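Reviewers asked in the last cycle whether our approach scales beyond single polypeptides. To address this, we selected a multi-component target totalling 531 residues and predicted its structure end to end. The input consisted of the following lines:
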Amino acid sequence: MADWKSEVEEVVFPGKICVPYSWTVGSTLSKWYVQLRDDGEIWANRCPSCGKVYVPPKIKCLDCYKDMNDWVKLPGTGTVETFTVVHYHEPGLHPKKPPFVYGVVKMDGADTGLVHLIDVDPDKVKVGMRVKAKIAKERTGHITDIKHFKPLS
Amino acid sequence: MERVAVIGVGQTKYGTDKPETFHELVWEVANKALDDAGITVNEIDNVVSVSSDFWDGRTISSMAISDTSGAFGKDISTVEGDGTFGALYGMMRILSGSFGTTMVVAHHKGTESSMSGITNTAFDPLVERRLGLDAVTSAALQARRYMTVSGASEQQFARVSVKNHGNALRNPFAALPLEITVEDVMASPMVASPLKKLDCSPVTDGAAAVILAAEREAKKLTTNRKRVWLKGVGHCTDAFRLGDRDLADTRALKKAAKKAYDMAGVTTEDVDVVEVYDAFSYMEPLWLEGLGFCDDGMGPEITERGYFDFGGKLPVNPSGGRLSANPVQVAGLAGMIECVLQLRGEAGRRQVKGAEVALAHGINGMCGQSHCVWIMGK
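The resulting structure, written as structure tokens, was:
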């Protein structure tokens, strides 16, 4: 477009959208969160057809398109499959101040990865590192009931 | 099956501080595309818009552009995804027999809101959203996984950024042309390891439009010089959750690419120029592997050898790619427009000589959950 800014003052309206929601958690994840909240345990569900174990649990198996009613308790340990050290800060979004670490943890007993925070010295985090879930003392039934994963040493 | 052609294209100069509203950007590119095709808005049968309500800060934003896009008194329907998927819907509307021509128009004003905040809302509010993940941190997880599996180095990823910002120097539409070195990329601020600032595409404003026409309409409305045929298309989606995928596995892209090549009756050997979705430097070699241009894990090394340079065996992202302008959801349509210009021989200083078959690729979802691959030719 032609450079209209030389003739007209550019006007900008600042704004913000805040709309409340009450998200239904549903049958599968409700069961997972209640178990995590009340017993401090991490469970997964297993496909009755191919045996693949999912955490977080899924309504149906990706490969078999089957309902998954088999539940298994996980030991809470796992291996870091990939990670990133975050160096920027988004207040209100990031749960910690930078630098902090996100990782995908392949939990023992499960076939999928769980994305979460890893509480580790950013200089020492490595792919393949063994970690264990730290369960929060105060639990509300959310993903943050797993406080973070910590290196097993 | 009836053939569908691109008969007109238009794009804004992409920028990081465009003062126009998205309606004005749509007005600009719709007119450019009509002028390019040499037709009037009366010849447009329907409009497919491409946008994201969260980015626009209003719902059903396609309703707001019904006038500027030329949809007033006709029909407009929206794709919330990359522009390559908008073109797919536009083509399907023609192939359904309901319409002879479709205007596909995408707009994005990334600078009006917060990239981190918007892309965080793409995550499941029941699980990952509260952890604060966004497009950059999830891409960083994918980049590291790709390094682990392929043995690629950060310097090799940086080489992609050097190439594409350099290509942008020849593209008057690009937002961020830069003459930089691998050392410059490595020295740019760390954002989310292993990604530095110059590994990441800029938050960008802009719009793009293409006019599609059924073969009969295309031949009636335009000259042979303007027409570029949509010869093949393929699309495929992977699992939603990051942990349900191996982030270095391009299985969905491989399926999409095979469908596109088969439909067009071509192989990778036939492709002369590629526009691939490089929202982050590491994505280019990863997607080039998925598209079959090299073996899995070899993308970074072959890039380093100059194979995908502007003067190399297969020029990739001669436009400068998404690294040089990434208006989200417009970006894949911009890649298709670049392919059209290359095939018509209208790409100016960035013209790939003798380009006869071009490939454009777009992604949707975090870490390339979904892919759309187009094969285009004269």
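The mean pLDDT of chain B is 97. We regard this as preliminary and will revisit it once experimental data from Aim 1 are available.
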